[in-house]
Specification:
alpha/beta, Rossmann fold, seven-stranded parallel beta sheet, globular, binds uridine-diphosphate-N-acetylglucosamine, binds uridine-5'-diphosphate
Amino acid sequence: MKISIVLGTRPEIIKMAPIIHELKARGMDFEVVHTDQHYDKNMSNIFFEELELPMPDINLQIGSGTQAEQVAGTMLGLEKHFMKTRPDVVLVQGDTNAVLGGAIAAVKMGIKVGHVEAGLRSYDNRMPEEHNRRMTDHISAMLFAPTQRSADILENENVWGQIHVTGNTVIDSIVRYLPKAKTEIPSQLGIDKFILLTAHRAENVDNPQALSDLVSVMEKCPLPVVYPIHPRTRKNLDNFNLMSRVNASDNIHLVDPVGYFEFMALEKECSLVISDSGGIQEEVTAPGIKKPIVIIRDNTERPEAVESGFAKIAGTNPDNVLNFVNEVLASDKDLTGRTPFGDGTAGKQIVGILEGFK
Ligand code: UD1
Ligand code: UDP
């Protein structure tokens, strides 16, 4: 059986890594296709290097663009590529445009699709990720749900593929790479306690008022804020003339996006995370990290992080976000040492299922 791993963005590289390592360990036939949705060194190549992954067999060079350009470009590029390599199974992970493009290209060519991280739902139809994950789930032959809740969602939606509960590969990656976590950023900045913040969702950073609200939160946070800033957000801070406010605040420390080892160390060392990221909601629940997170969104497709006590959904109103931040920092409630997202063997389980798939 030949497996094609299609990935395009930072989190897909991190979450596919355990599967790629397991495919290699079992000597299975696979290729890695990079759509290049993320292409800056610190959004892409750094992760192949740090995670010791084989470089992609092909790079489709899709790059940035509109939703249609990214999805359709991925489909066209993959169709051409799959005509040559003829994989039996295409694996995609998560909910990006690379995922939807990969899944459609494959199913239209009669190639089985395996969806890693299936069954997540925010029920927020504004989000491109919600379109992508819903459509991908419904054309996949194998659905690897991270939790029983995700599997139940898929059952209730009557998807036609086989559903398997495996945990999330993000926990495998934390377990494997956490011993390499290291950062000098806090000491270089001369700060001790700090809040780690990330934001890149369209609904938070593409709208001038929403982005200005985010700057207000950072200005008023009770601890210094370290923000490894996504290129999308940096561009918008410039476009909306908000960078001068950021530069004028002693509380805000923007840094370029960092590698995985450095980011894990920041997660480990911070007092609290504020984020709209999906993967970070999962990572903070890993026993080696165990950090509270204030989610700057109105909803989450990862309610397990809320139910297990790690996450609070604060919305985006600055006063509400700051209230949540202060409440969490003042709380002396211990977080559980158990993550709801699996036991760190998701990659092995997924490859085991693939091996037996007919
Ligand atoms: C994408 C995914 C999102 C995921 C995120 C992970 C979709 C619809 N969105 O969002 O689900 O959470 O990746 O980080 O697939 N840019 C660069 N350099 C890069 C990559 C992007 O400068 O290497 C800039 C470009 O201006 C680009 C913008 O960031 O237009 C947005 O990039 P894009 O990949 O379209 O969306 P993300 O916000 O990264
Ligand atoms: N991450 C990283 N460097 C950074 C920011 C994030 O290595 O500067 C990692 C983080 O550890 C997590 C993943 O990137 O594994 C999350 O990616 P992102 O928030 O961009 O995407 P999402 O998970 O929301 O799709």
